[in-house]
Design a protein that fits this description.
Elements: H1 2-20, E1 21-24, E2 28-34, E3 37-42, E4 45-48, E5 54-61, E6 65-66, E7 70-75, E8 81-92, H2 95-100, H3 105-121, H4 126-131, H5 133-148, E9 153-164, H6 167-247, H7 249-268, H8 281-297
Antiparallel strand pairs: 1-4, 2-3, 2-5, 6-8, 7-8, 8-9
């Protein structure tokens, strides 16, 4: 009899230990109730509860979750109706609030997300909606995070995964894109023609500058030649004047006769010279030169 009682006590002790010791996995939290009322939340690890009084009412995963992708119809600021495909990522931070404050978390998040997405998309035009997904995702996540705090939910991020446009809008976008391309092409051609005209004008200006430089160089050369010739004539005049001062009248006559002989030589050597008629005093001039030359030698 005593042994049976001992066995029963041992079994009861094991049952108490089994009911009182709870091991919570790393990715979960347990919600404990006592007499149907929330008592506490057990975090990961070894925990103790009062057997037969406390019970594990809910096992909540604290891992990040994803709402199933959903489509929502929105109207942009330029009155274009499009469909946005979206999803929401979240995790439970307060297990008690997520259980006792809201019945269906997924449905609540979806309904709130649709309202916030419609409001955010209505502020943008279609082109902005397609190119500003990142900023729109941030706005939706921030607004949704504020609404989900009371449910013990932390919104990690939201994603607009696709922008669905009907065929009429796509055709209008194609026409607009073609018009913009044509406009850019016209502008490019105009800029090319403008640049070509600028280059041609620069080339003409450069050519004119070079012609002006050439004229200036030629003028400088002519002026220098005139200057050199004038200096040579002046030097010749000085030499003749010195000779006149030394020899007097014979030197003048010699210079005159020498120039007459040079002139006759030029006439005789001309290509169109056929017959040369010399004045009778030319021979006298030649004889006088010879006599003068002989006197100089003596």
């Amino acid at each position: 009899m005593d042994s049976i009682i001992a066995v029963l006590i041992f079994l009861l002790a094991l049952l108490v230990l089994f009911k009182g010791i709870k091991v919570v996995p790393q990715s979960n939290v347990f919600v404990v109730e006592r007499f149907g009322r929330y008592l506490k939340t057990l975090n990961a690890g070894l925990n103790f509860i009062v057997p037969f009084l406390d019970r594990i009412a809910h096992r909540i995963s604290i891992q990040e979750r994803q709402l199933p992708e959903f489509k929502i119809s929105v109207i942009t600021r330029d009155n274009v109706e499009v469909q946005l495909e979206s999803t929401v990522y979240y995790r439970v931070t307060d297990a008690a609030s997520s259980i006792y404050r809201i019945q269906d978390i997924n449905q609540a998040l979806r309904t709130t997300s649709e309202s916030i997405i419609r409001s955010a998309a209505g502020k943008l035009e279609l082109d902005e909606l397609q190119s500003s997904r990142e900023s729109m995702n941030l706005e939706i996540a921030n607004n949704l995070k504020e609404a989900a705090i009371v449910w013990g939910i932390d919104i990690t991020r939201t994603e607009i995964t696709d922008v669905i446009i009907n065929e009429q809008t796509k055709e209008a976008q194609r026409q607009q894109l073609n018009a913009e391309r044509e406009c850019r092409a016209v502008i490019a051609r105009a800029e090319g023609e403008k640049r070509a005209m600028e280059l041609a004008a620069e080339a003409k200006l450069f050519e004119a500058q070079k012609d002006a430089d050439a004229v200036k160089v030629k003028a400088d050369a002519d002026a220098y030649a005139v200057k050199v010739k004038a200096e040579a004539d002046a030097e010749q005049t000085r030499v003749v004047a010195a000779a006149i001062a030394d020899n007097g009248h014979p030197a003048i006559e010699f210079e005159i006769m020498k120039r007459q002989v040079n002139a006759l030589s030029d006439i005789a050597s001309a290509d169109n010279a056929r017959t040369i008629i010399l004045p009778t005093d030319v021979t006298g001039v030649l004889g006088a030169i010879e006599v003068f030359y002989e006197n100089i030698r003596k």
